[in-house]
Amino acid sequence: MFCAPRFGEAVQDAQRIISLAPTWAMGYCRLGDLYAQQGKQLDAIDTYSIGLQSVSQDASLYAQLIEGKHSAELQNEKRVDFIRSLPVEVMAKIITLLPRDAKLVCLQVSSIWCKRTLEFSGSWRVSSGDDMTDEQSIKVVTYIAAYVEQLTIDTSNQQVWNQLLVDMQGGHFRKITSLHLTGIAGRSINRDMLVPMSVAFSKMNNTLTRLQFDANNDYHQSHLIKLADLLCMCTNLTSLRYRSESTSFDWIGAFTYVGQRLTLTDLEIKCHTSLRCNIEPLLQRCHKLKRLVLGNCSWEGLLNSISRNGPSLEIFSFDDKDTVPDVLEDDADMERQSSGLRFFHVGNAKRYDDLFTLIRNHSASLEDLSLSIYNGGFYSIGQSVTYSDIRLNKLKKFTFTRDNYNIMEPFLRHVISTSDNLRHLCVNGSVNAEPIVRTLLTRPRLECLEINPYHHPFGIQHPWTQLFEAYAASSSALTFQMISLKQYDLSGASLTALGKISTLQEVTLENLPRATGPMIVAFLTKVGNNVTTLNLSTLPVIRNDELKTVAGMKGLRALKLRQLPNVTENGVIRMVDTMTSKLRCLTIERCSGVTEKAIVHAKQKINIVEYQAF
Predict the structure, then answer these.
(1) CATH number, domain containing residue 8
(2) Domain count across the chain
(3) Largest CA-CA distance found in the chain, in angstroms, rounded
(4) Domain encompassing residue 24
(5) pTM (two decimals)
(6) Nearest Cα to 446, choosing from 476, 466, 409?
(7) 390 alpha-carbon distance from chain centroid
(8) Residue 561 located in a structural domain
(9) Residue 132 carries which DSSP code?
C-alpha cells in the first residue's frame, strides 16, 4: 500500500478510515505515516495532533500517535528548503530547466515555492495548450498568465477556454506579444464567447503584436470572427495570419469601422475556397505592409490593387505553394523606405498584361521571382504585352513553370540572358530545353539548377547534358553547387557529365524513370568526396547494395531517403554502421521496408534522425 506510485490511493484509504471511525487511532497513524514518508512533515504533525484530540488516551495506539508526532517534529526541524537557501541565480537556472509538469507541481507546494517559481518568468514566456492537461491548465493559468509572452491555444475544452477568457478579460496576460489560436481552438468558439473575446483582445491590445487565427474547419459554417473583426479589436498588430477551411465567403467582414493599421507589416490569408471578396478596402488600410501572402484569392484586379495600395510591399505571394520568407526585423522598420518588391511568387496568374506591368514596376528590386501560369493565362494575350524592356538586374533566383500554351517560355530565356546576377534557376514542365541551354551557355554559370520536366515525352532532355559538360570543363570563379533532377529522362551521359563537376555539394534525385542502379552507383562514387547533402526519392532502383555506395561517401553530412520501396531495415543498419563520413542528419520517410528498429539503431550513432512511417 505504501509503495511510491500508489501513495494517493493509500492516503485516500486512510482518510476513509478516519471518516468511518473518527475515534480509532489506526486511521490517524496510517495517514500520519504516509505524509511523513512523502516528506510532508507539517501535514503529518497536523494529522497526529487531530488524532491525539480525537482518540481516547487509553487506546492501544495512543502512544504511537505521540511518538509519530514527535518524530515528524524532529524531521521538520532538520528539513532544508533548498528553494529558500540556494542563490537566486542558481534557483533560476534549475527552475528554467525543469519540465513543464514539474514547474506546475512547484506552484502548488507552498506559497514560497509558488512565488519563487513565478519570479523566474523565463519559464513561462512560451505556453501552449498541448504542454499541459486541461485540468492543469485550469489550475495554473491564473498563476502564469502574467509571465506568458507567447501563447498557443490548442484545446476545445470549454472549461479551459472560460478560464483563459476570465484571465484575459482581467488583464492578467499583461506581457503577451504572440497568440496562436489553432483550428481545434477556432472550431470551439461559439456565439456566447464573442463578447468575452472582444473584451479579452482589448485588454491584450497594448502588447499583442503577432496573431495567428485558424478559423473553424466546418466547411459550411459561417465565420463568427472575421478578418475585419480582428483588425478592429487588435490595433497594434505587426503580423496577422488568418486561415480557414470553410467554404463560406463571409471571411473578410466589413471594414467600415477599421481605421488605418500603420503597424501591420505582415499579412497572410489562406482559405479553403476561392475568395471572391474585394480585398482593396483591406489594402487601403494597411499601407505599411511589407509581406502579403494570399491563397485562393480572386485574380481580377488584384495586381492593380497591389500597385495602387502596396507602396511598402517587399514580399508578395499569390496562390503559391513554396515557402514564403518572413519579414526580418530590419525589414519591419517602419521608418525605412521600401525599395520595391524583392520576393514575388505567383501560382496561378490569369492576365499576362497585369503580371508584366507589376514585374516591370519592380524590375529594379526583384531578387526572387516565381511564375506558375496554368489555365486561363491566354485570355489577355495581345500585341500590347511586351517584356523586351524588362531588366531584372538584382534577380538571384527564378522559378518558371511552363504554361499550357508555352507562351511564356520566351520570357524565361529573356530573363536568363539579361539577368547577370541570376544564380538559382528552377524549370518545371516540358519546356524546349535546347534554346534554354544555348542561352545558359552564353552567360556566367549558375550555382543551383532544378529541373522538373513532368509529363514530358522521353528523349527530349539530352540538351541539359551539354550544359553539364560545359560546367564540368569551366574554370569560372562561380561554383555550380546544387542540382535537383525530378521526373527527368535521365541518361547515363547526363550523370557522367554531372559526376565530373567537382564543385557539387547538394544533389537531389527523384522519380527518374530510366535510371538504373549501376548508373546511380557510378555517379555517387564520383561525387562522394564533395557532396555534403544527398536526397534520394521515389527510386525503386535504390536497394541495399546502392546504400553501400552511399555509406562510402566521405563528404556526406545530411542524407534523406524517401519512398524507396526496396530499401530494408538491414540495409539502413549496415549503411549506418559502415559510414565513412560524419553524417549529422538522417531523414527517412515512407520507406516501407524500414521499421523503428533501424531508426533506434541510427539514433545511437547520428545526432539528428527524423522518421516518417509509410
Answers:
(1) 1.25.40.10
(2) 1
(3) 113
(4) 4-79
(5) 0.76
(6) 476
(7) 36
(8) no
(9) S
